[in-house]
Design goal:
The complex is a heterodimer of chains A (370) and B (306).
Chain A: H1 2-11, H2 18-39, H3 45-48, E1 63-64, E2 66-67, H4 76-84, H5 89-116, H6 125-145, H7 149-161, H8 171-188, H9 192-211, H10 223-236, H11 246-250, H12 254-271, E3 282-288, H13 291-305, E4 306-315, E5 322-330, H14 336-345, E6 353-358, H15 359-369
Chain B: H1 3-48, E1 57-60, E2 70-73, E3 79-82, E4 88-93, E5 98-105, E6 114-120, E7 123-128, E8 133-136, E9 144-145, E10 147-150, E11 158-160, E12 164-166, E13 171-179, E14 187-193, E15 203-208, H2 209-213, E16 223-228, E17 235-239, E18 244-248, E19 254-259, E20 267-272, E21 277-282, E22 290-295, E23 301-304
Parallel strand pairs in B: 5-9
Antiparallel strand pairs in B: 1-22, 2-3, 3-4, 4-5, 6-7, 7-8, 8-10, 11-13, 12-13, 13-14, 14-15, 16-17, 17-18, 18-19, 19-23, 20-21, 21-22
Classes of the chains: A alpha+beta (370), B alpha+beta (306).
Chain lengths: 370, 306
């Protein structure tokens, strides 16, 4: 596969874009096919259902018919004719081999698309292998059965005896399986051109529907819109540093990224910029079910114990306690423990938890993560 | 050596081998065609000196002519052949065994149960099993040619399997393979139709089978195709189920009944050249379809007045 990959890299100028790579593969396939048909015109008939013994499909020149009487004399040409002529073992083996190679070449990009363009996480390796093998089997069966009603009925009987009951995880897998059967049929009746057009259209259609998320419910936000807010916050609202680890951020859910963005903003408020001394040096975080009462209590305590303070954010939650954040600078004679004790001693059931993160602690955390 | 280099070398070797083999094939083809002409000339001279009824040549037809049905000869000696279901007409050089070209009747191609083909002055006629006559001219290679259709409304009366153009009367002849009319059972029925006067109803010629097949010991006759002997003007009818050739005069008198030599499986078409070569087509059964050339008249008569 490595040489094929290199050729596709060369034809697509190293582009990783799936549509360009697919176009590169089909262009390479068309080039090889053109050369082969040019040199061996009879192979062109496998594309349009003529068979190797039929007159060349791509050439309009005269076709010499095989001499039916010369075969009876044991000459070299007649022996070759018997070995590779119409109906001979060599002819049959050659035709079948070319059909199978053509089928594999057509199904390779289908398997790539199957592995790449998916809406659910992961894919089944068994299905990938089936996509390559199933059309070969179907093509072989069609080659055997072709033109024989008796064999067709026999095959129906045999298949009826073998029960396939495999549940596919994604309903779209069924479409791929149907496609592989169709390509197998096309190859079996020696009309690989139909198989080629079928896979070409299928692959590009699937890639485009995947790329543009075609068929999405209009009420469901797109992945792009889900990410836009949090990522924009991370980029624009952080004065101290942009996103520390982009891959890490992208691995988060939008909700977690949103929370991370808030935390960045809060931390940057505390840390300040490099040039300017920060107005606040600590973050007070409170969790509560009674926001108004907790706010009244916290603000009265802060008025007594902080040089300056500012309500940063009230985050109302459903099913879990809400959160209140304050930015503050403590008075010089007030310690962290003094403030927390003052809040907790009168809190009762108004406040679940209270915590104070100082500038030094946050700076230490940031430098440790960097 | 690195793998890609090896693969490229193998690819280059394959392509050059293909190129060389093609050049060799061109040269070998020309010498083969010359050898064929020489062989045919030799066999024909032996046959004219009274040799046995052996095939002069036999050409294996491509898969597209697997169900070769009708044969006809153009004025220049080229042979027309078509298959059973598609309106594709192949032009063949019968003396050298070369398929020269193929053209298609209708755009798109007509799908019908085509049974016979014949050539009139500058025009070609093809007939299907219902008696519909398709009239068209010769086309270039892979060209779709226009046609006109004439329905003589004989589908119920007769199942047709052949057609022949009689130059002397300027009429198209169509023998019945199976006669639908009860009163005509036991007769060889041939319809005659004048293309120059298409509005005229076809006339019918009925010959009692007893006078034709009786002397040969045959009980029935199911004509598959028909040709006109260019030298005598006699009607030469081939019957696939019986595997015989029946020659009659235009007046309906039996000339001879010949059992086909060579054991053909399903002989469906017949044509006779101006220099007395009989061409018989044989549909594919267990082996490929073919056309076989004999000297005409074949000296293997099983009955008749010859």
């Amino acid at each position: 596969m490595r040489p094929l990959r290199k050729i596709i890299d060369f034809m697509t100028l190293g582009s990783g874009h799936p549509i360009r790579r697919l176009l590169g593969y089909y262009a390479f396939l068309a080039l090889v096919l053109t050369i082969v048909v040019r040199l061996f015109p009879a192979t062109g008939n496998l594309l349009i259902g003529g068979g190797l013994d039929a007159s060349p499909a791509t050439s309009t020149s005269e076709v010499v018919l095989r001499d039916g009487l010369v075969d009876s004399s044991p000459t070299v040409s007649s022996l070759a004719n018997r070995a590779f002529g119409v109906g001979s073992l060599g002819h049959l083996a050659g035709t079948t081999t070319l059909i199978l190679i053509g089928t594999i070449l057509l199904m390779l990009p289908v398997s790539w698309v199957y592995m790449s363009a998916r809406h659910v996480a992961g894919h089944s390796q068994a299905v990938v292998q089936t996509l390559i093998i199933l059309p070969l089997v179907v093509a072989g069966v069609v080659v055997i059965v072709r033109d024989s009603l008796a064999l067709a009925f026999s095959l129906a009987g045999v298949v009826a005896a073998v029960r396939f009951r495999t549940n596919l995880r994604d309903t779209r897998d069924v479409v791929f399986i149907f496609l592989s059967i169709a390509v197998g049929f096309a190859a079996g009746v020696q009309t690989l051109a139909i198989g080629a057009v079928l896979t070409f259209v299928f692959n590009f259609l699937l890639l485009l529907t995947w790329r543009y998320d075609y068929g999405r419910n209009v009420l469901t936000p797109t992945a792009a819109s889900q990410w836009a807010g949090p990522l924009n916050s991370l980029v624009t609202r952080t004065d101290w540093q942009a996103v520390p680890d982009r891959d890490l951020v992208l691995s988060l859910t939008p909700e977690k990224a949103d929370a991370l963005a808030d935390r960045f903003q809060r931390v940057s408020g505390v840390l300040g910029t490099k040039k300017k001394k920060p107005r606040f040096d600590a973050v007070l975080s409170i969790t509560t079910d009674k926001i108004t009462e907790a706010q009244e209590l916290a603000e009265s305590v802060l008025t007594d114990n902080a040089r300056r303070w500012k309500l940063d954010e009230v985050e109302q939650n459903v099913g879990k306690p809400s959160e209140i954040y304050y930015l503050l600078r403590l008075k010089k004679n007030v310690s962290r423990d003094d403030l927390l004790t003052a809040i907790r001693q009168d809190a009762g059931d108004r406040i679940h938890t209270a915590d104070l993160e100082s500038r030094e602690a946050i700076q230490g955390e940031v430098s440790a993560s960097a | 050596m690195r793998k890609p280099t090896v693969i490229l070398m193998v690819l280059a070797a394959t392509l050059s081998l293909g190129g060389c083999s093609r050049l060799d094939a061109d040269g070998a083809q020309k010498s083969e065609l010359k050898a064929r002409e020489k062989r045919l000339t030799e066999k024909l001279s032996v046959a004219r000196q009274g040799g046995a009824a052996v095939p002069l040549a036999k050409w294996i037809l491509p898969a597209a002519l697997r169900e070769v049905s009708g044969l006809a000869l153009l004025d220049d000696g080229r042979l027309l052949a078509h298959n059973d279901e598609q309106s594709r007409v192949y032009v063949i050089d019968p003396l050298r065994g070369v398929a020269l070209k193929m053209f298609i009747v209708g755009q798109p191609a007509i799908r019908a149960d085509f049974e016979g083909i014949t050539v009139g002055p500058g025009v070609i006629y093809m007939v299907d099993s219902n008696g519909n006559i398709y009239r068209f001219e010769e086309g270039e290679d892979r060209e779709h040619v226009r046609y006109t259709l004439h329905d003589p409304k004989l589908g119920r009366e007769c199942e047709f399997e052949g057609i022949a153009y009689e130059p002397d009367s300027a009429r198209v002849l169509m023998p019945c393979k199976n006669v639908g009319m009860k009163e005509m059972k036991g007769n060889l029925v041939i319809y005659r139709w004048r293309p120059e006067a298409p509005e005229e109803a076809p006339t019918m010629m009925a010959i009692p089978l007893a006078t034709l097949v009786g002397p040969s010991g045959l009980k029935e006759l199911h004509p598959s195709d028909m040709a006109i002997d260019p030298r005598t003007g006699n009607y030469v009818i081939i019957a696939s189920p019986e595997k015989v050739i029946v020659e009659i005069t235009p007046a309906g008198e039996l000339v001879q009944v010949i059992r086909l030599p060579g054991g053909p499986r399903q002989p469906e078409g017949i044509a006779i050249t101006n220099d007395s070569i009989l061409i018989v087509s044989d549909e594919a059964r267990k082996s490929a379809a073919s056309i076989t050339l004999y000297r005409w008249p074949i000296r293997a008569a099983v009955g008749g007045t010859q």
